[in-house]
Amino acid sequence: MKGGTSSGRDMQSQVGKQIKILENRIDKANQKFSEAINTNKQLREDIDNLRRERVVFDNIYLKLVSKLEKDLNVKRKDMAKMIDMVSQTYQNRDKAQNRLQSMIQTDEGGDGTHKPEHDKNATDNLRSITSKTASQ
């Protein structure tokens, strides 16, 4: 029975070694699991922080876009006013030129002499049109 007792001890020793190996594996797996949980926790915190930052930046972006749209609309209105004013100025200039041509033709068509008062009237007309245009 000598063989039976030592074989029981050998078996017990092997089982003890196997238990230690398995416990070691469990400890290592628990360590990796704990590390994964900590990493996951940190990543979740990072994600939450990024989400909060996104909300802040979205608000800033929306305010900026709104302000830029308002500024653009103001600029468009100003540009439309300027276009109308320039158009009116051109029309006034054309009217003044037509009047001047009409006065010149009237002056030349009459008795063939040039009258200085016509020059003064034409100059006065141009000044009044220019001052009207400038005040607009």
Please characterize this protein's 3D structure:
- The chain has 136 residues and is mainly α.
- The protein is 94% helix and 0% strand.
- It has two helices and no strands.
- α1 runs antiparallel to α2.
- It is rod-shaped.
- The termini are far apart.
In short:
By secondary structure, this protein is mainly alpha-helical.
**Beta-strand residue fraction:** under 5%
Overall pLDDT? 86
Q: Give the overall shape, derived from the CA principal axes.
A: rod-shaped
| Cα distance spanning the termini | 126 Å
Number of strands: 0
Helix content: over 70%
Report low-confidence residues grouped into runs of 5 or more.
none
Radius of gyration: 49 Å
Based on helices, strands and strand pairing, what is the structural class?
A: mainly alpha
* H-E order: HH
Question: Biggest sheet, open or closed, and with what strands and sense?
Answer: none
Give me the number of helical elements. Answer: 2
